[in-house]
Structures are given as C-alpha cells and as structure tokens.
TrEMBL record:
Signal peptide from the UniProt entry: 1-30
Name of the protein in its database record: Neurotrimin isoform X1
Species annotation: Gymnodraco acuticeps
The organism's taxonomic lineage, starting at the top: Eukaryota, Metazoa, Chordata, Craniata, Vertebrata
Limits of the Ig-like domain: 26-129, 138-218, 223-307
SUPFAM superfamilies with a match to the protein in the record: Immunoglobulin
UniProt xrefs under PROSITE patterns: IG_LIKE
Entry keyword Repeat: yes
TM regions (residue ranges): none
Cited CDD domains: Ig
A Pfam short name: I-set
UniProt keyword annotations, A-Z: Disulfide bond, Glycoprotein, Immunoglobulin domain, Repeat, Signal
Length: 356
C-alpha cells in the first residue's frame, strides 16, 4: 500500500469513528415520531417504499456545517460530496447550505433499516434518523407439482409465498364455483373423488399485489360403462353396436359374442376405438351375426361391461304394402269380400227399385 493510500484509509476510519463517538448514532427498531424540537437527535417518520422504487433521504443543514454524512447502520454512504458507498444505486441529489439529499434506486429488502444524517456544526453535532420499510409484492415460491392419484386417496397441496406484508393464501378449484374454504399454505383433500379432479388455483395476496399459480390433479378411476342399447338390423344390411365408458386413464375395449372374443377384420366385423367410445360394425349382417354381445372396458384399476342384443328386422315386401295391414291372404277371404260388396250395392239401390 502506498503512503497516500495508507493515509486515506486511516482518515476514513478516523472519520467514521469520530461520527460514531461524537454523534452517538442511534440504533434500534423503527418508530413513528415527529421528532423532539428540544433535542439535537431528531427522529423522522418511517418511510414506506415498495420494492423496486426509488427512495429519497433528505436532511436539513443550517448553521455553519463543518462535516455532514449519511450513514446506513455502520456504513457511510456519503460524507459531504464524497461517495463512500460502492453501491451504484446510491447517488447524491442535493448538497447545499439548506439540504443534504441522497437517493437509493431500485430499493430491495436489504435496504430496509435505519438511516442517519449526521451533521457537525461549529457549535454542536446533531443527527436526524429515519427508518425505511420496504414492501414486497407476493411471490409464490413453493407450489406442489401436478399429480396423478387414484380415487379415494388423500391429497395435500402446498402453496407457499413470500412478500411483505405477509401475503394471505386462498385456494380455488377452477371447474367449480367458490373458494375451497382454506386460507392455509396447505390444502387437504381427504379421500378424493373424480369430481374433485381438475385445476387448482392458489392465490397469494397482500396490499401491494397478487400472485396466482395453478396445479393440476388427475384422478384415476375404474371404467363405468353406459348401459347397452339393443339394435335391430335387417338381414344383409349394415349394423353398428356402440359402447361408451367413462374412465381415467382411458380404457381399452374388448368385444365378445357369447364367450368368443371378436377381433377386427374377422367375419366381416370391424372394431374402432376413439377415446371413451368403441364401435363394433357389421358390414353385411348374416343369420349367424344375430345374438348377444358383450363389451368390456378395462384400465389399470379394473374393468366394467355391458351387454347388447342384435335382433332381426323383417323388411316389408311390395305385395304387403299394396294390400295394407288388414289384408287377408287366402281365397275364401277374397270371395267373402266380393259378396259383402254386392250386398252393399243392393241396399243402396233398393229404395229406387221399390218406387217403380
């Protein structure tokens, strides 16, 4: 170290020590006061600032000032026009006979605390202290990951947030209306049902701002197959049996006729599966296709089934349509109809014949 550097460091330490000893810099918790006009040590109201904003620290001078400095706890920020702080956010705004003002930009939680303006005049020293309170918007810092559980399991979701003032936590299932009645970091869901699956929203709020994040719960459950509908099909026509199952994860389907499993592409039948729906298609129904069928839906939790009946539908012939539904098909029936028609004609013309 050079001689010049040595003396500069020595003078810096000497000046700091003299400020501490001479000015009796106060320390302690933040207070609210307008100051004591009878004292040389003045305490100003707390300054509340939000994280990221700029704060100005003002100190009146007056009289004949020989030395003046702004201190943060044990560190000198500015001694007159000389900047002692290495923090680039701290800068001098005004220094004259009436005012000594510095500013701190982009304020953070580390800037919270007591600041002291120390003034040495020709008569006596005095200090002005102020406490900076930094408010921080809420930020969710710890949230449960998306989870997959089986129906009936106990589930706990966690949502932790930082901020000042301390944020409050609330939970909401987006697919339902209203909050879930929990204002805790943890949401307990005992014996979860499929109706409680979905996206859960955690909201952290304080008087500064709001932070919202979500977590998804997937609930696995056994397939539930809709009741099968019987289908009537005309011989030689196309027929379709449809099987629908509600399940998570999505089910796999199997089709049976009696006890025999059916495979797609065999005997003119095709099986097509789309999500929760399975279709068994007959392109040209034969006599052998009529009967009872069973659809089985399966996932890793279990299975469910339903039954169908495919029955024959007789297509009406052209002669049946012409005769109508009350037509009689034998010969005696035709003669009786003709005789009845003749009798009716006789009754109509009988009054005219009697007049002659």
């Amino acid at each position: 170290m050079s001689v010049r550097g040595y003396f500069f460091a020595l003078s810096k330490r000497t000046f700091l020590l003299s400020l501490r000893m001479l000015l009796l810099v106060p320390a302690g918790l933040p207070v609210h006061s307008q100051g004591d006009s009878q004292s040389d040590n003045k305490v100003m109201d707390n300054i509340t600032v939000r994280q990221g904003e700029t704060v100005f620290l003002r100190c009146g001078q007056g009289d004949v000032v020989t030395h003046t400095a702004w201190l943060n706890r044990s560190s000198i920020l500015y001694a007159g026009e000389d900047k002692w702080s290495v923090d680039s956010r701290v800068s001098l705004v005004t220094l004259n006979q009436e005012e000594f003002t510095i500013k701190i930009e982009n304020v953070d939680m580390t800037d919270e605390g007591q600041y002291v303006c120390a003034v040495q005049t020709s008569s006596r020293p005095r200090t002005t202290s102020v406490h900076i309170l930094v408010q921080v918007p809420p930020k969710i810092i710890n949230l449960s990951k998306d989870i997959v559980v089986n129906e009936g399991s106990n589930v706990t979701l966690m949502c932790q947030a930082s901020g000042k003032p301390e944020p409050s936590i609330s939970w909401k299932l987006i697919s339902s209306s209203g909050d879930l009645g929990s204002d805790d970091d943890y949401l307990e869901i005992p014996s979860i049902s499929r109706q409680r699956a979905g996206t859960y929203e955690c909201t952290a709020v304080n008087e500064i701002d709001t932070d919202v994040q979500t977590v998804d719960i997937t609930v696995n459950y056994v397939p539930a197959v809709s009741e099968g509908r019987d289908v009537g099909v005309t011989l030689g026509q196309r027929g379709v049996l449809e099987c629908e199952a509600d399940a998570v994860p999505e089910p796999e389907f199997e089709w049976y006729k009696e006890d025999r499993r059916i495979y797609t592409g065999v005997d003119g039948m095709e099986i097509s599966n789309t999500g929760s729906l399975s279709k068994l298609t007959f392109f040209n129904v034969s006599d052998a296709d009529y009967g009872n069928y069973t659809c089985v839906a399966t996932n890793k939790l279990g299975s469910s089934n339903t039954s169908f009946l495919m029955y024959v539908v007789i297509e009406p012939t052209s002669s049946t349509l012409l005769q109508g539904p009350r037509a009689v098909q034998d010969g005696s029936g035709g003669a009786a109809g003709l005789h009845l028609h003749t009798c009716l004609l006789g009754l109509v013309f009988l009054p005219f014949l009697l007049r002659f």
